[in-house]
Amino acid sequence: MTISSLETLQQIFGYDSFRGDQQAIIDHVVQGGDALVLMPTGGGKSLCYQIPALVRPGTGIVISPLIALMQDQVDALLELGVRAAFLNSSQDWRTARDVEQAFLAGELDLLYIAPERLLTDRCLELLSSGHVSLFAIDEAHCVSQWGHDFRPEYLGLSILHERWPQVPRLALTATATAVTRREIAERLALNDAPHYVASFDRPNIRYRIIEKNEVRRQLLAFIQAEHMGDCGIVYCLSRARVEETAEFLCENGISALPYHAGLAPTVRSTNQARFLREEGMVMVATIAFGMGVNKPDVRFVAHIDLPKSVEGYYQETGRAGRDGLPATAWLAYGLQDVVQQRRMINESAGDDSFRRRLGAQLDAMLGLCETVTCRRQRLLAYFEQTISSCGNCDTCLEPPQAWDGTVAAQKILSAVYRLWRERGQRFGAGHLIDILRGKLTDRIKQYEHETMTVFGIGADLSEQAWRGVLRQLLAQSLLAVDSEGYGTLALTDASREVLKGERTLMFRRESEKKARNSRTASTRSKAAEIVLPGEAQQRFENLRLWRSEVARSHGVPAYVIFHDATLREIALNCPQSLDDLGGISGVGVRKRDAYGEELLRCVRG
Ligand code: ADP
After folding, report:
1. Sign of CA dihedral 337, 339, 345, 348
2. Are strands 489-491 and 479-481 parallel, antiparallel or unpaired?
3. Residue spans in the chain of domains classed CATH 3.40.50.300
4. Is 44 in the pocket of ligand 1 (CB under 6 A)?
5. From atom 9 of ligand 1, which residue's Cα is the shortest distance away?
6. Class level of CATH domain 5-197
7. Mutate-to-test residue for ligand 1 from 294, 560, 563, 569, highest number of ligand atoms within 8 A of CB
8. How far is the CA of 584 from the centre of ligand 1 (A)?
9. Positive or negative, the Cα torsion across 419, 421, 424, 426?
10. Which of 66, 462, 479, 498 has the most beta carbons within 10 angstroms of its beta carbon?
């Protein structure tokens, strides 16, 4: 008797119904079709290949670049009673041989393989000798040469189509611009396959972008006020910043670990494992961290440096709140970020068109930071999707004011102009602001800048306000970071229009409330919103304690046993019997049989 997709979803995974396009994708692949699937992180891609692999005869081969995470992925499936295994370079040969034999004997539903392994003659031979039900190419954007995760091995995957034309192939990614999508389809020979593009909206994530001043203190205040004890990720641009930020958080009572490509592989994998297994851990990392980490209860993702592209930013923030519970994406950004990134682009190796592409990506990111309209609308527009304003981002919740910054802009631009025309000099932001505010610093005296007509013409605005003006001018390319590499500022063609009074400039000014909140700490506690009523909270805590013990004894992360969302539902609904338990989302047959009695005992207290 064959089991249907829906029965598989309900009995094995313990979920009631499919989400979005899942049903259509699964039906299509079960019938032997190829597909390209684009869903945001946390959208539910895994089921799109796991269920067809269970329904179709043979073994589903999952190609995943993430060796360090295969163990967890397989453990999670084994807990569900799915026959899964992996083949990668971390195994000894005996284990690998056992896996190969299980595959040949038809004893596996799913087999995870790293692409470089798959492309070896030995592995291709192995697959030819067994029965493959489908190929799932996870993280398919790794095939894109312009993308941030390019992996040359992925280019070799076109061989799958040539060698197994009858076996359905499913490419999945959370990276979704039209350009990347076309590139994936072309390189993996999926041009004729349907493309399933889901909504990229993640409504449970609250987007917030704040003006940076003392970023570590702001980060600490944010975590203390809204996410104390929560699991989170903090992204930084450099390794040094990762190290110092992790240290700073630890000194201030927050459990934090560093992660970047400069750490020894053993340190990296230990830190990753601790992040996955321990409750309330904060990972401070470069973007080297996170792909494929499917920890469902990451409650916040913070960026303390400006990300280089909206695409990267959206993937990184998407790692928050996969369980659908409220989560925060928090970004602090300031003038120095813009200067630094424009400078990095000027200095980057590569031809003009490469630099132009980097510049366009940065412009889109800056547009998001400076927008006075809904952040989510802006984010989704980048993926060519439209929504009405979301009500769950900072601009919707605390609308910023727009102010006419034309005169302020003219003052700065004329200072830049005069320095160059009259003195043949260029300076960076700090010194320009000192000139405008009429500050008699040693440097001002050294260059006799107090004698210039622009000296002191901007005393009416604070230093912070001037930084905001400069930042927004740089964001709109009305000022440029010159290409000599010192971070000095120069006019652009567009600046002349402003100087001549041909253009009015409206700038963003934070609402009073938001400015106050980012100086002190927000009083609005997100975490409080997910506290359960009355005794349910205590039951939830008990269930979590029980889960920690089980997870420890099985050597797996806690979420592999049950997600928070499932434990919350149990705590709220107080099931009295195994039948009641079966109705809870995330409790499949196998887990009900294995843990049902203990769960009921836990609920009874
Ligand atoms: P992605 O790979 O797209 O980032 P996952 O496959 O990890 O996302 O799914 C995200 C979360 O949503 C997981 O915790 C998963 O168990 C859950 N999920 C997926 N599909 C469903 C569904 N139909 N019903 C309930 N939960 C689901």
Report:
1. negative
2. antiparallel
3. 5-197, 205-397
4. yes
5. 44
6. alpha beta
7. 294
8. 15
9. positive
10. 479
| Length reported for the chain | 605
The radius of gyration computed from the CA coordinates of the chain, to the nearest angstrom, equals 27
**pLDDT tens per residue across span 424-463:** 999 999 999 999 999 999 999 999 999 999 999 999 999 9
Q: Can you give the pLDDT at residue 452? A: 95
Residue ID of nearest Cα to ligand 1 atom 23:
18
pLDDT of residue 517: 64
pLDDT at 179: 82
Architecture of domain 535-604: Orthogonal Bundle (1.10)
What digits encode the pLDDT tens for the residues 491-542?
999 999 999 999 999 888 877 666 666 554 444 444 445 678 888 999 999 9
Enumerate the CATH 1.10.10.10 domain ranges in the chain, comma separated. Answer: 402-508
Question: How many other C-beta atoms are found inside a 10 Å radius of the C-beta of residue 605?
Answer: 8
Tokens 């009305």 identify what position?
478
Q: Using a 6 Å cutoff on CB, does residue 258 contact ligand 1?
A: no
In the chain, list all ranges with CATH 1.10.150.80: 535-604
Instruction: Please state, in angstroms and as integers, the Cα–Cα distance from residue 228 to each residue in 231, 281, 328, 386, 563, following that order.
Output: 9, 10, 13, 34, 20
Question: Could you tell me which CATH number the domain at 205-397 has?
Answer: 3.40.50.300
Residue with tokens 């320009």: 432
Q: What is the mean pLDDT of residues 115-141?
A: 95
pLDDT (mean) for 473-496: 85
512 with 557: CB under 8 angstroms? Answer: no
Q: Does domain 402-508 have CATH number 3.40.50.2000?
A: no
Q: What is the whole-number distance in angstroms between the Cα of residue 73 and the centre of ligand 1?
A: 13
Q: What is the pTM of this model?
A: 0.87
Q: How far is CA 399 from CA 390, 396, 514, in A?
A: 12, 6, 9
Task: Return d(Cα 243, Cα 407) in angstroms, integer.
Answer: 42
pLDDT digit string, tens, across residues 224-257: 999 999 999 999 999 999 999 999 999 999 999 9
| Single-letter amino acid code for the residue at 348 | S
Q: Is the dihedral of CA 357, 284, 79, 593 positive or negative?
A: negative
